[in-house]
From TrEMBL:
Main location as per UniProt: membrane
Pfam families: Rhomboid
Transmembrane segments: 15-34, 69-88, 100-117, 123-143
Membrane topology: Multi-pass membrane protein
Location(s) in or outside the cell: Membrane
Domain Peptidase S54 rhomboid as annotated: residue spans: 61-157
Annotated protein name in UniProt: Peptidase S54 rhomboid domain-containing protein
Iron-sulfur found in the keyword field: no
Keywords assigned: Cell inner membrane, Cell membrane, Membrane, Transmembrane, Transmembrane helix
Source organism: Sulfitobacter indolifex HEL-45
Matching PANTHER family: RHOMBOID PROTEASE GLPG (PTHR43066:SF26), RHOMBOID-RELATED PROTEIN (PTHR43066)
The keyword Mitochondrion appears for this protein: no
InterPro entries: Peptidase_S54_rhomboid_dom (IPR022764), Rhomboid-like_sf (IPR035952)
Signal peptide boundaries: none
Amino acid sequence: MFPIRDHNPSGRTPYVTYALMAVNIGVFLSYLSLMSDERALGEFYYSYALLPARLSHGEGYFGLITSQFLHGGWMHLAGNMLFLWIFGDNVEDEMGHGRYLLFYLACGIAAGLGQVVTEPLSWVPMVGASGAIAGVMGGYLLLFPRAKVDILVIFIVFSASSRSLRGSCWGCGSACSSSAASGPHPAPAAWPIGRIRAGSLPGWCWPCRFGYAAAVSPFGDRPTATRPMPPQGMT
C-alpha cells in the first residue's frame, strides 16, 4: 500500500518542507555521478554518512545531520520524499516553521543515536531521512488521527484514516528497500524499516513543551559488517 495524498489542507505555505525536499534532492544529484564508481561512492559515504563506531570513539558527530540528507538510490529518495510531501505540510502548519525544522532534525538525530546504541561498533555507513520522516509521520498520526488519506493498492485508490498508515508505511518502506537493494549500488542502513515503524507508534511520542504532539524514532536497522565498506546491501 502506498499513500499518495491526504485530504487535510494546511493553512500556510510549508516553506520548510519544500526546502527540506529541495536540499535532499539537490544533495543526491550532487553525488549521483559517483553511483558508477563503487570505490568513490564508498569513500563519499564514509566521509558524510553516520558511522556508529566513529561516533562511539567520540568522532564524526556531524554525521548525525549530514546522513539525513544522503540516500542510496532513486527509489530510496523517492520513497522518503513522497512521505515528506504528503505529511510534512500539516505538521509544519501545526508546529510553525522554526519548531518544525528543529523537530525534524531532532527526530533524525534520535534515530541515528538509536543506531549507535544498538550497533556501537558497526562501520557500515547509515544514510537516509527515514528517521526524521518517521518522526513527522508519528506526529501526523497524533495530530490528525482521523484525517483521510488516499492509498494506492495495486491500481485501486481508496481513502482511509491516517491510523491505517502503519501498515502502508511498512509496505512502502519494504518496496523501496527491496528496489534499492536490488540496484547496482544498494546502500546498507537505507530505509531502515524498524525506524519507520517506531516513528509511527504513539509509544515513541510525547507532548512537547509547546503543546503540540511530537515523535521520535530511536531505532535504526541492523547492518552486520564490522569495517568501512562501500554500500553492498540492506537489512
